């Protein structure tokens, strides 16, 4: 159970922070950059939800919860010691990736194939979902960078990769099922 009765601790005043296993690292550590960007993404999803409703809002709600799971996973190094831990660390599961894939397929079912790249925008919801997509891609790049330096849960990286695709397709749905997508016109302003 999480209990937060005091918000400031002063323990990070010298530029370091505690990971999920208690180890202290610099606040610019690759692991902190990865889960910090996941937190930023979650806040961006919250902004998108201000414009969402129905099934899309429900899916975004589930994604926000997943992003907390993902942050918990990324903040806990030493995957090889998971079995020894007093409390098993929360790790992303392939089932979360599979749920995104199922949702992408359902959202994409009524969209015409793209014949051009699209510009981020259109409706307010679509614009926010495109912002979510770009932050998700940054979080993915940081998670991949982390995974090259130390063991990282492969499902965490897969989830971020699939999530940016989810945001792209959901943005098209938010643009009147793609009918209001803003198409890129190569060289239009030469």
From TrEMBL:
What enzyme class is recorded for this protein?
Answer: transferase
* Keyword presence, Transferase: yes
Domain Cobalamin adenosyltransferase-like per the UniProt entry, residue ranges: 7-174
What is the protein's major site of localization?
cytoplasm
Q: Does the keyword ATP-binding apply?
A: yes
An example GO CC term for this entry is: cytoplasm
Lineage: superkingdom = Bacteria
Q: Where in the cell is it found?
A: Cytoplasm
According to UniProt, this protein's pathway is: Cofactor biosynthesis; adenosylcobalamin biosynthesis; adenosylcobalamin from cob(II)yrinate a,c-diamide: step 2/7
Task: List the Gene Ontology MF annotations in alphabetical order.
Answer: ATP binding; corrinoid adenosyltransferase activity
The protein's Enzyme Commission number:
2.5.1.17
Q: Which InterPro entries match?
A: CblAdoTrfase-like (IPR016030), CblAdoTrfase-like_sf (IPR036451), PduO-typ (IPR029499)
Keywords, sorted A to Z: ATP-binding, Cobalamin biosynthesis, Cytoplasm, Nucleotide-binding, Transferase
Quote the Pfam families the UniProt record gives. Cob_adeno_trans
Q: Which GO terms describe its biological process?
A: cobalamin biosynthetic process
Please write the reaction equations for the catalytic activity of this protein. Answer: 2 cob(II)yrinate a,c diamide + reduced [electron-transfer flavoprotein] + 2 ATP = 2 adenosylcob(III)yrinate a,c-diamide + 2 triphosphate + oxidized [electron-transfer flavoprotein] + 3 H(+); 2 cob(II)alamin + reduced [electron-transfer flavoprotein] + 2 ATP = 2 adenosylcob(III)alamin + 2 triphosphate + oxidized [electron-transfer flavoprotein] + 3 H(+)
Similarity comment: Belongs to the Cob(I)alamin adenosyltransferase family.
PANTHER family named in the record: CORRINOID ADENOSYLTRANSFERASE, CORRINOID ADENOSYLTRANSFERASE MMAB
Q: What is this protein called?
A: Corrinoid adenosyltransferase
Annotated organism of origin: Actibacterium pelagium
């Amino acid at each position: 159970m999480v209990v937060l009765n005091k918000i400031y601790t002063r323990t990070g005043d010298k530029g370091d922070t505690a990971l999920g296993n208690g180890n202290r690292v610099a606040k610019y550590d690759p692991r902190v950059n990865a889960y910090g960007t996941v937190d930023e993404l979650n806040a961006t999803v919250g902004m998108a939800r201000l414009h969402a409703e129905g099934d899309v809002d429900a899916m975004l709600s589930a994604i926000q919860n997943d992003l907390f799971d993902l942050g918990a996973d990324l903040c806990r190094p030493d995957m090889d010691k998971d079995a020894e831990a007093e409390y098993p660390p929360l790790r992303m599961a392939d089932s979360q990736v599979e749920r995104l894939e199922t949702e992408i397929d359902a959202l994409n079912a009524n969209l015409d194939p793209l014949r051009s790249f699209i510009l981020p925008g259109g409706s307010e919801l679509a614009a926010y979902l495109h912002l979510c997509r770009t932050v998700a891609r940054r979080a993915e790049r940081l998670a991949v960078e982390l995974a090259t330096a130390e063991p990282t849960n492969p499902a965490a990286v897969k989830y971020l990769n699939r999530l940016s695709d989810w945001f792209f397709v959901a943005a098209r749905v938010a643009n009147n099922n793609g009918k209001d997508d803003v198409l890129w016109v190569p060289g239009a302003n030469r």
